């Protein structure tokens, strides 16, 4: 199979998955307790008023008609309007998406910067104190709930020492860059400093589990590669140990690590709900919680569809990169 056909196959599979996500999200609207009319109608609304509201929302139509209308509207970029604020669902969701992506990327950078060196050190110093420390760190990181870690970081570093803000987001990375471009270096440095202060604790909280997972994966991959025959052959040739570790062994170890990195990035985009809630981060997670609390189904559906689509896109990119790095994947 050629590389192009491989990408086309994966793309078609991605379209099917997105359609499945859209269908499931649509069905959830009708199997969950409560009624969308209840979120719009006053408490003392008459039956006539409730019927008129249902007709305006299209809820008086048969289920299959509502489903086909929903698919058609999605294909035309229309995700409906918020029951509460009247704002377009697409406008509200996509305005929150940059904050979630920013948090996911920041937590990924922290995780990669810590986990790969820790994994290499743990593998090359096996059964030494450095190995035990890295292993313990990864075990604690995987076992620690994100919400508890976030609360502890707030109590210690924000409330007790006042180093970081307790919650919120002053502005995003793009806004900080614009400030630097429009107001000069001094204002830009201050803007990036403020951006770092707000994003550090949420990123550390979200990236801790990710860091521990990649550390363990890198360690096991390095141990496996260091025991291969080609490593012994390169050592017999007299190559420096650092070259053997980082150019040969680590390079081969990174192939499965890249796959997990991509998959986890998609998970971070969709799984930042608790972290965003703890830190009042204005992203998709907070939007999703608010929509659930107010039964704002257009916002809820739009958020879930965007998260699901983003996860599929990330997986497609990972498949493309993995197939490029390992041509055997395409051959299979």
Automatic annotation (TrEMBL):
PROSITE patterns the record matches: ABC_TM1
Key word Membrane present: yes
Record's bilayer topology term: Multi-pass membrane protein
Transmembrane stretches, start-end: 12-31, 103-124, 136-163, 195-214, 254-279, 299-325
Assigned keywords, A-Z: Cell membrane, Membrane, Transmembrane, Transmembrane helix, Transport
SUPFAM superfamilies in alphabetical order: MetI-like (SSF161098)
Any one annotated GO CC term: plasma membrane
InterPro entries: BPD_transp_1_N (IPR045621), MetI-like (IPR000515), MetI-like_sf (IPR035906)
Organism: Halolamina pelagica
Entry's localization field: Cell membrane
Domain ABC transmembrane type-1 span(s) in chain numbering: 97-318
Name listed for the protein in its UniProt record: Dipeptide transporter permease DppB
Family the entry assigns: Belongs to the binding-protein-dependent transport system permease family.
GO biological process: transmembrane transport
């Amino acid at each position: 199979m050629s590389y192009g056909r491989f990408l086309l196959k994966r793309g078609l599979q991605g379209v099917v998955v997105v359609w499945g996500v859209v269908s499931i999200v649509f069905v959830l609207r009708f199997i969950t307790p409560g009624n969308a009319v209840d979120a719009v109608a006053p408490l003392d609304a008459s039956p006539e008023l409730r019927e008129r509201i249902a007709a305006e929302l299209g809820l008086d139509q048969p289920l299959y008609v509502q489903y086909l209308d929903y698919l058609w509207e999605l294909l035309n970029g229309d995700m409906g309007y918020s029951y509460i604020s009247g704002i377009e669902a697409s406008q509200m969701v996509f305005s929150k998406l940059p904050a979630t992506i920013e948090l996911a990327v920041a937590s990924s950078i922290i995780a990669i910067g810590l986990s790969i060196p820790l994994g290499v050190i743990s593998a090359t110093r096996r059964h030494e104190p450095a190995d035990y420390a890295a292993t313990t760190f990864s075990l604690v990181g995987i076992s620690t709930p994100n919400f508890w870690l976030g609360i502890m970081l707030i109590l210690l570093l924000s409330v007790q020492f006042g180093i970081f803000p307790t919650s919120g987001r002053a502005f995003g990375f793009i806004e900080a860059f614009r400030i630097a471009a429009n107001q000069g270096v001094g204002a830009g440095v201050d803007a990036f400093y403020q951006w770092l202060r707000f994003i550090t604790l949420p990123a550390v909280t979200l990236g801790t589990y990710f860091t521990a997972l990649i550390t363990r994966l890198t360690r096991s991959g390095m141990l496996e590669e260091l025991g291969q025959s080609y490593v012994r052959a390169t050592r017999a040739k007299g190559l420096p140990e650092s070259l053997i570790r980082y150019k040969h062994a680590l390079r081969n170890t990174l192939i499965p690590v890249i796959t997990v990195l991509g998959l986890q990035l998609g998970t971070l985009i969709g799984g930042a709900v608790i972290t965003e809630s703890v830190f009042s981060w204005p992203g998709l997670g907070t939007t999703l919680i608010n929509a659930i609390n107010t039964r704002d189904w257009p916002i809820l559906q739009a958020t879930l569809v965007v998260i699901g689509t983003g996860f599929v896109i990330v997986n497609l990119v990972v498949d493309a990169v993995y197939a490029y790095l390992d041509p055997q994947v395409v051959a299979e």
